[in-house]
Write a structure and sequence with these properties.
680 residues, 35 strands, Jelly Rolls, alpha+beta, 13 helices
Length: 680
């Protein structure tokens, strides 16, 4: 059927196939150019991948010697994380601390008696307080769940409530403060107080608070009065002063009584010591004279031999923060923990039973033996924290209290279990109470350093593998990479030897290998820790002690890590390891030597703006643009050529058709002529 000619439908000479055959020859230059564009785009992708690998290596190297390097990071390690944990910043000093957690900070949590599910809370205005903050809202009346939900919505993150099914058909209402600390007690007033009494959450009792007055006529001066000053409600004791504040009548120091007051310290400037001149000695009158007969005779001047002058020693500075003590009726005295320097008044609280052991408290004594520190005290109170404002919880799940810890034997009190102002750069979190001291060590983040070194080696090896594949035509460089997946291996084979004639990558690879193998200057003695191999990172063809035959994979420049050697170096010689990666040789506080510094310096020209990789990809982009413009020109030329061929073949076929028609006409005429002659 393909040979059937249908005028106007199919060409007699199959001109479409002829034109396509001619055009396929014409398209060969365009196809070669298009393949060249595809090849250039692949090469651009290879260079971009190399650039990403170099950038990763550069960042990994820079992180090992920059200002934010892991060698200056600190971690806190607790001997018992169930008691205390901590986090440390790079500002923390390396040191070991001993903590005894005596008491955790808690918040008030009060529980009602079991209430039937049908219990309804009366409408009213319910007011609660958490420390100095007051939370008040109106309730239109309803179930316990509706009341509990309203407290949680209006609690501002400081007040909460929940229902606990303590019995079948009955639930207890739990109202709690969300803020820990003795100063953040949970209080009830108005309708909320009546609710607390009616639900058995609390009971009435007398307020136990006692103020210790600061009055001129009651103070007992233990030093010159010029060193003690009473202004309004604050008592100031200057350097060298001492005073006793009586507690009258005395109070038995047992549980649950506490003493609370506010202190402020003022540090005085230290004046420069000026050595006094030697004393002038006694004033000796002149020896006198006598005159007789016009002759004057003078006595020899008197003299007093003086001892050699020895200047006095400069006065010694005295710093004694333990300025407070409790005096008991039996004459005994107990010193309170040292006062923290604070330019503003800061409240402190002590449990009397822990200090007095049942003795009767008679006075608070302030003895300021410091030479450059004044202390002020105010608001001295003794009270039972469970009975404030005539309100005492009947079923406290927990009561508001401060955290109490001893650090290096010094008692410290805070209103939270997360303490960030005790050790510079360290945030301590209290987890549980322990009667025994728990060690908390601040040390370098050796695991972080190890991870950074491993990351650097990984980036180095992956870049080295990429360059080996691109610059060599040997399948073994791919087979040696055992960590590759099948898809990655196939992708690597497409890139194998793509830049085998490019000297830029070969030079860079050789430079990296030299940087990883050369010795660097450190402060170590006897060339200690000047090579990567000395910390367990090696480019050796074979580790000592390992058997086996020749393995060419070990000669391709890949780095190997001996974790035991690296761990030992980080544990014992961390400063030298840091210097090996980055060291300031001339003391200008700028790193100018080291493995990481050298690798970063070698990598920088390749990936910085306008660097070698950018020049390579820019050149390829220019060539791609030129070839694409050439392809556009060829497309126009090919389209014109195809149109020309179609026109020429169309003209040819039209001429052939006309000739065929003429031939048919002549044949018809000839037949007609022959037939006429025969008829005659």
């Amino acid at each position: 059927m393909s040979d059937v000619y249908i005028p106007g439908i199919k060409s007699r000479f199959d001109t479409d196939r002829l034109i396509e055959g001619l055009m396929s020859v014409e398209r060969l230059p365009r196809e070669r150019t298009e393949r060249n564009v595809e090849q250039l785009e692949s090469q651009k992708g290879y260079w971009q991948e190399i650039g990403r690998r170099i950038s990763s290596l550069r960042e990994g190297a820079r992180s090992l010697y920059s200002f934010q390097n892991p060698f200056t990071e600190r971690v806190a390690r607790s001997a018992d994380e169930s008691v205390i944990t901590a986090t440390a910043t790079r500002e923390a000093a390396e040191r070991e601390y001993h903590f005894t957690v005596k008491q955790l900070a808690q918040a008030d949590r009060f529980l009602s008696r079991p209430l039937e599910d049908s219990f309804r809370v009366e409408p009213g205005t319910y007011t609660f307080s958490v420390g100095k903050d007051e939370i008040s809202f109106d309730f239109r009346g309803g179930t316990l769940k509706e009341f509990s939900d309203l407290i949680n919505r209006r609690g501002q993150g400081r007040l909460g409530a929940s229902l606990i099914a303590v019995e079948r058909g009955a639930r207890a209402l739990l109202i709690e403060s969300k803020v820990t600390g003795a100063e953040n007690r949970l209080g009830f007033s108005g309708d909320s107080e009546r609710l607390a009494y009616s639900t058995g959450m609390a009971e009435r009792m007398n307020d136990s608070r006692r103020e210790v007055p600061l009055q001129e006529n009651t103070l007992r001066y233990l030093s010159d009065r010029q060193y003690v000053d009473l202004k309004e409600t604050a008592l100031s004791v200057y350097a060298g002063g001492a005073v006793s504040v009586p507690v009258n009548p005395g109070i038995q120091a047992n549980a649950p009584w506490v003493i609370q007051f506010e202190t402020l310290t003022n540090l005085l400037p230290e004046e420069a010591w000026v050595e006094p001149p030697p004393p002038p000695g006694p004033d000796i009158p002149p020896g006198g004279e006598i005159t007789y007969g016009g002759v004057t005779i003078e006595n020899d001047p008197a003299s007093v031999p003086l001892p050699p002058w020895t200047p006095p020693s400069p006065p010694q500075r005295v710093d004694d923060p333990a300025m407070l003590s409790l005096v008991f009726s039996d004459g005994s005295k107990v010193s309170l923990p040292p006062v923290r320097d604070n330019p503003s008044f800061n409240a402190v609280r002590y449990n009397l039973d822990e200090i007095g052991g049942g003795r009767t408290l008679a006075a608070l004594e302030i003895t300021n033996r410091n030479t450059h520190r004044d202390i002020s005290i105010r608001n001295i109170q003794i009270f039972n924290p469970e009975a404030l404002g005539g309100f005492r919880p009947r079923n406290p799940v927990s009561t508001a209290q401060d955290a109490l810890i001893a650090m290096e034997g010094i008692d410290v009190r805070r209103d939270t279990n997360t303490i960030d102002d005790l050790i510079p750069g360290v945030t301590v979190t209290l987890r549980g109470v322990s009667p025994r001291p728990v060690n908390l060590g601040i040390e370098p983040d050796r695991e972080g350093v190890k991870d950074s070194v491993i990351t650097l080696v990984g980036n180095y090896n992956r870049l080295m593998a990429e360059m080996n594949v691109l610059t060599r035509n040997d399948d073994r460089v791919i087979d040696e990479l055992s960590y590759l997946s099948e898809d990655e291996r196939e992708d690597m084979r497409k890139r194998l030897g793509a830049f085998s004639g490019d000297s830029l990558l070969s030079q860079f690879k050789n430079s990296l290998q030299r940087a990883a193998a050369m010795a660097y200057r450190t402060s170590g003695q006897d060339q200690d820790y000047v090579l990567l191999a000395q910390i367990g990172v090696s480019t050796d063809a074979r580790r000592s002690g390992m058997g086996g035959g020749y393995d060419p994979a070990r000669l391709r420049g890949y780095l190997e890590i001996d974790e035991k050697a690296l761990d030992a170096a980080l544990e014992n010689k961390l400063p030298l390891v840091q210097e090996l990666f980055g060291y300031d040789t001339d003391g200008d506080l700028i790193v100018d030597s080291g493995v990481a510094y050298m690798i970063e310096s070698l990598s920088r020209p390749y990936v910085e703006s306008g660097g070698f990789i950018a020049l390579k990809t820019g050149t390829i982009d220019s060539r791609i643009s030129q070839d694409r413009r050439r392809i556009e020109t060829m497309d126009r030329q090919l389209a014109a050529r195809e149109a020309q061929l179609k026109m020429q073949y169309g003209q040819m076929e039209g001429a052939y058709n006309r000739m065929e028609q003429l031939s048919n006409s002549l044949d018809n005429f000839s037949r007609q002529s022959t037939s006429g002659n025969n008829n005659r």
